[in-house]
Design goal:
It is a single chain. The chain is α+β, with helices and mostly antiparallel strands. It is built from seven helices and four strands. The chain has a single domain, classed as Cytochrome Bc1 Complex, Chain A, domain 1. Helices cover about 55% and strands about 15% of the residues. Strands 2-3-1-4 form a four-stranded antiparallel beta sheet, with helices on one face. A hairpin with a 3-residue loop joins strand 2 and strand 3. The longest helix is centred in the middle third of the chain and has 20 residues. It is globular, with a radius of gyration of 17 Å.
């Protein structure tokens, strides 16, 4: 089991940055779908999560091939690229995801409760409104470059690994 948390102070600076980060993580997951399929068949699991303060990368499975999967994810992260069609598809999916969160009373209530309790938290309504105003491909590219330049890393490795 390997878990790394790539933390960046950039994410929480504005609602636009949070939405750009969500878009970035979804495009990265989409890009990894085909190359990581063989790892999935070999019973290796990976998950990319857009955490509140950064990207969480989790991989687990048999230890002798796990570093290859982790390296694949890091390679796609470092050489991040996307097409305008993928950008449009992911932003449309994100609009639906945000909207579905807003129309469910229990998730909306949780969001409002956390907004009251946590200092500096951005609401789902703010995120949805930012996304509806529109994002640009250039803004995403600039965000990803800035994100990769301001990273702090925390990691946990458990299992049959050597140092």
């Amino acid at each position: 089991y390997v878990r790394f948390h790539l933390i960046s102070p950039l994410i929480q600076q504005s609602t636009e940055n949070i939405v750009l980060f969500d878009t970035f993580v979804n495009i990265l997951s989409h890009n990894l779908g085909e190359p990581a399929y063989e790892a999935d068949v070999a019973q290796l699991e990976y998950k990319l999560v857009a955490g509140e303060y950064g990207l969480i990368i989790r991989v687990k499975g048999f230890n002798h091939k796990l570093p290859l999967l982790f390296q694949l994810i890091i390679d796609y992260l470092s050489d991040f690229s996307f097409t305008p069609a993928v950008f449009e598809m992911i932003t449309e999916q994100l609009k639906k995801t945000y909207y579905n969160i807003l129309i469910k009373p229990e998730t909306l209530a949780k969001d409002v409760r956390l907004l009251i309790l946590e200092h500096g938290r951005w609401s789902m309504i703010d995120k949805y409104q930012t996304l509806m105003k529109g994002l640009s491909i250039e803004a995403l590219s600039a965000f990803v470059t800035a994100f990769k330049s301001q990273l702090f890393v925390e990691g946990l490795v458990q299992g049959n690994f050597t140092s």
